[in-house]
Amino acid sequence: MSAFRKPELVAKAATALLALCTLNGAAAARGGFSTDENRPDSWYIETLPPEVQAGIHRRGEACARPLSATRAFARFIEVSNVRFIAIHFHALSCGDRSALCTADVCLHEIYVSSGGRYHLALSSRVRDVTLTRIDNSAAVEIACESAGCPHLLRWNGRSFVGR
Predict the structure, then answer these.
(1) Reported pTM
(2) What is the span of the domain harbouring residue 5?
(3) Residue ranges of the chain with per-residue pLDDT less than 50
């Protein structure tokens, strides 16, 4: 290869690298390559339905204002046109953690809507809850400390019940 072509290759490589850096910067601005997923933000609360926000504000009275949470705060599932939102209070920024959590467990709530307003369907201080779908119905898997705690509850159309 001639000496004339080498600077041309270097220029092309530099241009490609610059373009890649620009794309990564744009993606990061949109959240595509964000390293701040666990940074608390009030957006995670403000985008929830008003009934759910009201419940969070009541529970978070001991916390600093404005309330903020991390991305893990709310999880959603829809089954047979019924929407469920699980709220994980361990992901809420709160100066007084004892109002919501102990060393082993935290408050978790599940709100339900079937085309109208959301209402509180389950509130429990447990290690974790996971919304899931079983046989075309909603269920909640509960990770808890006590042996007598139900580990799986199913939605019966009005409430979560054990088998």
Answers:
(1) 0.74
(2) 1-35
(3) 2, 4, 9-35
